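Workshop exercise sheet. Pairs work together: one partner reads the sequence aloud, the other fills in the structure field after running the prediction. Swap roles for the next sheet.
Pair: D.N. / O.F.
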Amino acid sequence: MEGYKEKKSKSIVICGYPISIFFIVVNEFCERFSYYGMRAVLVLYFKYFLKWDDDFATTIYHTFVALCYLTPILGAIVADSWLGKFKTIVYLSIVYTLGQIVMAISAIHDITDANRDGTPDNMTFHIALSMVGLILIALGTGGIKPCVAAFGGDQFTDDQEKQRNTFFSIFYLSINAGSLLSTVITPILRAQECGIHTQQKCYPLAFGVPAALMVVALIVFIVGSGLYNKTAPQGNILVKVCKCIGFAIKNRFRHRSSEYPRRDHWMDWAEEKYNKLLIAQVKMVVKVLFLYIPLPMFWALFDQQGSRWTLQATTMNGDFGFLIIQPDQMQTVNPILILALVPIMDSLIYPLINKCKLNFTPLKRMTVGMFLAALAFIVAALVQIQIDKTMPQFPSSKQGQTKFINMLDTQLNVKAGHYNITLSPYTANADYLTFDEPFELFLNSNTSVQADIPDGNRTTMVIIKGLVSPTYKQFRDLESKPEEGGNAIRFFNGFGSALNVTVGDQNFGKIVPNNMSERVLVPRGNAQFRIFDGTRECTYTQELGFGSSYTLIIPPTVTFPQCQESIRPVLNIERNTVHMAWQIPQYFLITAGGVVFSVTGLEFAYSQAPSNMKPVLQAGWLLTVAVGNIIVLTIAEVIKLDDQWAEYILFASLLILVCIIFAFMAHFYTYIDPAKIEAEFAEKEPEEKKKESLKMDKKDSVKNFYENGKNSDSSSDEEEPNQTKM
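Structure field:
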């Protein structure tokens, strides 16, 4: 860039290390905390705050992740072609920070009046604000991704190779530390209750802390400005490679007729414009990029840890005895296992394989990594099958389900359609009854009433005294598990006067006789419900797990102040019984697969390409991650399977198929030494330049002869070439 001068490092050196790297490492830690902390709770924010279903929440989540891995290409081009790394990091970090702040603001539901269940009235505003925030975050985090590590490397001189390698180790350690801490802390913040008018899960805090960390990251990076070694933009090699490939394709298409001689490689058609060394380097890169084609399928599975697997954890039991694990905290298993498995692989597994004299090439390692990820999804499917066994059978779109509660003081015989049940006073039947159409309801007599349940709904029919004969009131029940592993509790007041019920700082509202209260989500534990009749009160205690739903009957015979034995609990939805610990094997397999696949893949790609082409391979690698996430959102929206375990098996099957294709491609791959090839071209370069010079001299001689001949013989009968007027 014209007018941009390289600034020499002014950094103080301590123990051989420039102090400027401190600012870069702290910046990276805060930025990774910000990104992974926000991302950890994102899919639950979509499901429980924006009220999206699992498929749509998964789609938007993976669209966001795909954008985060597409924008690094844009960031690299901007940094290398125009702004330089420092300015690119600063400007896009500002965009990034604004995005995080917008996300935190979008989650504040008390800025307007909220509905009884805490759902904001102006949901469109919150959705629009969230989408703006996510776009800004994707642009920011993706844009600075290719710049920060490279900028850190720029702080070292050529004779500081050892210090530079140590810096990169510390740099990547800070990435994993930020990821680990954020996925532990932000779910805890989300689980807190906060709000002005209503108490809800605290998404503003869960997004606000990552926003604050991003502000810290930006400030720390700018503070170190005077100490950095800032290099001028040198031009983007990715753009140059794309132009070279584009010219080769265009030139080959232009000369597709048989009169032109065939060339050994399609890239050789770029020789008319580009030197042979660059073409040889591009050939090496293209050879590796061809192997990248099957890789997106691996990332399609790997990145579902933050979407499908987190949603799976919401239907599981997170009680580990000494601590309670939130569904989104299970994602911490991944960075913990990475920190443990990387040194084990490098210092134990790989050396052991080498001692056994097994030819475990990098491409074979990557194949094993893909196979391990497929196994992880098979395990996830087996876990899902066990979860499904404990899940209620909710009605289909053409069915209705109901449960009967007898609020009479005598035994009740109920005939509903083809069902016959007998209910003792103040009790309910154990299971929901399913109806495909309206039915006749008989209550202790031959007199019937026509009853109907809306299709796809679950209801409770409470039998109460009528003027002449028993009648019923119908109340809608939940058609899905309670949110976020909470327990949906409601009261039916069969007492003779209005009652007020509270649990902790939550209020069920005023419950008039023969009516049902609103549902309140109560966390796991020993819940104590305080019941008031205006002058007296009593306390009812209920032990709650994760994900259950109860209707608590207050009969007319309730006594004060001792009502523990009087209250009758009616189970609507069973608690989660499959433990979250069963997810650990699938996390272990996919993390082991990720370590073998990802680390080996980058090492392989870097060893098979020239040093100046490594940014191209990095861009291609990030592109495979983006495409992988696009595959997930496509399957989530297009191939909608009724059973989640079937979707897991589908992904596992696709990856096994891709794994076989990749193994076939790897079998025919020939490993090369890029440095050796470049050295050969370097030796040939003077001779090539000499030949090119002779060609140019010959062309100039012909041109001079033609021009001199024309000027010396103005009376020549030879026709002059056509002249174009300017």
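Discussion prompt: The chain has five domains: 16-235, 236-274, 286-392+581-688, 393-480, 483-573. What would you look at next?
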